[in-house]
Amino acid sequence: MLTRQIALAAGLAISLSGALAGTASAQETIRMTAIDGYPERSMWVKEFSAFFIPRVNEELAADGDYEINWMEAYGGQIVKPRGVLEGIKLGLGDIGIVTTIFHNSALPSQGLSAVTPFIAADARVVAQAVDEIAREFPQMGAELEAENQVYLATGVVLDTYQMFSTTPLNSLADLEGLKVAGAGYNLRYLEGIPGAAGVRGGLPNFYNMLQTGVVEAAMLWPEAAKTFKIAEVAPYMLQADLGAVNSKTVTVNSDVWADLPDEVKGVLQSVAIEYRDHVAGIAMDRAEASRQAYIDGGGTIVVMSQEERQAWADSMPNIAAEWARDLDATGAPGSDMLVAYMGKLAAAGFAPLRDWAAELN
After folding, report:
1. pLDDT digits (tens, 9 = 90+) for 41-56
2. The predicted structure's pLDDT at residue 161
3. So what's the pLDDT on residue 57?
4. H or E stretch including 215?
5. What is the DSSP secondary-structure string of 131-196?
6. 261-265 own/partner pairs: CB under 8 Å, 24+ apart
7. Strands across the sheet containing 217-220
8. Can you name the residues that pair with 179 across neighbouring β-strands?
9. What phi and psi, each to the nearest 5 degrees, are found at residue 211?
10. Within the chain, what is the greatest distance between any pair of CA atoms?
11. Phi and psi (nearest 5°) for 302?
12. Apex 101 CA angle, 98 and 107, nearest 5
């Protein structure tokens, strides 16, 4: 009898061992490379690593069928800031954060919030509104499909653009004749200001552009000014509250996406929305502290009057209507997207200094 019990116990042990081995082998490991050309100290990159990736891992671990073995490459290890779109297209990275303002030709619909300044200085509202537009209209996704990518979610990492300069700024007139660094559509904000000229650049080189006199001013936001120590070279900020802009979009290489299990796709999609709200919340939470840090670093802030802000908005060409008509001409619903977006901001309680959509007709 004892011998039989020992044999049964041994058989049970072997059976359990086999079952556990089967369970372990059932978990599939997927390798993914995450890329961005910006350095890790950039808020959205830091949070992609510290929030997005751990949340994906956590969600996948709950079911236990899949896990992702991540490789992270930021700050030029694989691509430079302007190279993320091309890098993911070519498969140099599997997933990444595309800075869409660098790609107005390939991704024109991503410029929606950039062509509608002077409305909402709230990253959370703008992020949700743009992302809803992307899901209600196929245009944003179609543009990324043409770049061999799948859209996951938009990102707004700035509370609002402001103007930082090497000389004191107190009014709209003080911007006349200045060379101003910017990126993408925000350079067009200068078109109604006599003598002002936009100079295209990227956040990592704004410091050097200001320090060496290539430009006298730059459009960026206080959190970035703090991170990149802009107060050292541009100690004057004109608080114009130009508005929050979506400038980051999380995408996945289309070929990689096609091979992913549905469970993994669902997790990436849901966590991308969490990441959207997470970074927008951080942008707003850090806004006031970043302004104080700028002052503590030697900077001076002058608040632009509502009358001056209105004059600035009125001086601009209607870049939103131009944007919408250009998309309309390609068969895309540009005007409908603009009207819908303005409606979402109005529903959230934001009144524009200028109703860009009203000037479509």
Report:
1. 999 999 999 999 999 9
2. 95
3. 98
4. none
5. HHHHHHSSHHHHHHHTTTEEEEEEE---S--EEEESS---SGGGGTT-EEEE-GGGGGGGTTSTT-
6. 261/28, 261/65, 261/66, 263/60, 263/63, 263/65, 263/66, 264/30, 264/60, 264/66, 264/68
7. 197-200, 179-182, 217-220, 162-165, 236-239, 300-303
8. 197
9. -65, -35
10. 102
11. -115, 130
12. 75
CA atoms of 328 and 336, how far apart (whole Å): 9
Question: Can you read off the two tokens belonging to residue 122?
Answer: 């709230």
Tokens 């490459």: give the residue: 73
170, 164 in Cβ contact below 8 A?
A: no
Spatial neighbors of 307 by CB under 8 A, at least 6 apart, are: none
DSSP states of 274-304: HHHHHHHHHHHHHHHHHHHHHHHTT-EEEEP
Residue 81 DSSP label: G
Q: Partners of 344 in the beta sheet?
A: none
> How many residues belong to the chain?
361
Task: Show the tokens assigned to 73.
Answer: 């490459």
- How far apart are the C-alpha atoms of 109 and 106, rounded to whole Å? 9
Note the pLDDT of residue 202: 85
Phi, psi of 12 (to 5 degrees): -65, -40
State how far the Cα of 203 lies from the Cα of 188, in Å rounded to an integer. 17
Q: Which regions of the chain are under pLDDT 70?
A: 1-25, 361
The 10s digit of each residue's pLDDT in 113-162 is 999 999 999 999 999 999 999 999 999 999 999 999 999 999 999 999 99
pLDDT of residue 294: 93
Structural domains present in the chain: 28-156+247-286 (3.40.190.170), 162-244+288-355 (3.40.190.170)
